[in-house]
């Protein structure tokens, strides 16, 4: 067994099974470097190029933290666009396929808000969404984030480019300070550094330059 084997990590058997069923034979570099810290509950700031497997990295960390019998939103993933939120939701669902009763809801614009409000009546364990629609639900009191244990900012550099910084801070303010925070980015401009200082607590910083 190499250190790149998913089975070298303290992962639930259900997650090892889904990783295998997806045909992921070994961890990519970013997964190998970030998962031990994430699974240990640390805040992580991870920079790695597109296509390096960042989604599965945070998805496995997030799914490890969900208590399926606690009917609250325990994980929040913010993405820059609807397309990305849908891709992330798909990957989390694929990795959760052997875990019983995990409810995930994708909250993006372009979908009637009434349907989302109905779906939120039973709080999903995981919310993946774009900042605008998540903020909209917070303002309507249709989404509660006070039980969030893990927050993920995916493609944080793109969210900053799109001008979502203040929206992100407004959303983060509604989550407990005791949460674990993970920030993923393909680039590392000064603005990411500044955002990380406001949101992350003594993060482990990981930078992967190689392909895999
Ligand atoms: P990023 O978010 O870093 O741009 P993605 O998370 O979208 O990259 O991953 C890119 C592709 O790699 C996806 O199709 C995903 O299913 C696949 N992938 C992720 N982890 C592994 C792995 N350990 N082994 C093989 N393929 C993987
Ligand atoms: Mg990605």
From TrEMBL:
A motif (Q motif) lies at residues 4-32. It comes from the Bacteria. Residues 4-32 form the DEAD-box RNA helicase Q domain. Residues 35-206 form the Helicase ATP-binding domain. Coiled coil: none annotated. Belongs to the DEAD box helicase family. This is ATP-dependent RNA helicase DbpA. The chain holds residues 1 to 212 of 460 of the full protein.
């Amino acid at each position: 067994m190499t250190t790149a084997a998913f089975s070298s990590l303290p992962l639930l058997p259900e997650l090892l099974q889904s990783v295998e069923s997806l045909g992921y034979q070994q961890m990519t570099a970013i997964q190998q470097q970030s998962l031990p810290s994430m699974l240990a509950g640390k805040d992580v700031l991870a920079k790695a190029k597109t296509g390096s497997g960042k989604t599965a990295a945070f998805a496995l960390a997030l799914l490890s933290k969900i208590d399926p019998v606690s009917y609250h939103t325990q994980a929040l993933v913010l993405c820059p666009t609807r397309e990305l939120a849908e891709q992330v939701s798909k990957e989390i669902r694929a990795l959760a396929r052997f875990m019983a009763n995990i409810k995930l809801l994708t909250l993006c614009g372009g979908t009637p808000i009434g349907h989302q409000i109905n779906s939120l009546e039973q709080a999903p364990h995981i919310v993946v969404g774009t900042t605008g629609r998540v903020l909209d639900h917070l303002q309507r009191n249709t989404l509660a984030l006070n039980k969030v244990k893990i927050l993920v900012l995916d493609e944080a550099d793109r969210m900053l480019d799109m001008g979502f910084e203040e929206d992100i801070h407004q959303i983060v303010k509604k989550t407990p300070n005791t949460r674990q925070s993970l920030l993923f980015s393909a680039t590392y401009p000064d603005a990411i550094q500044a955002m990380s200082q406001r949101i992350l607590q003594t993060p482990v910083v990981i930078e992967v330059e190689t392909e895999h």
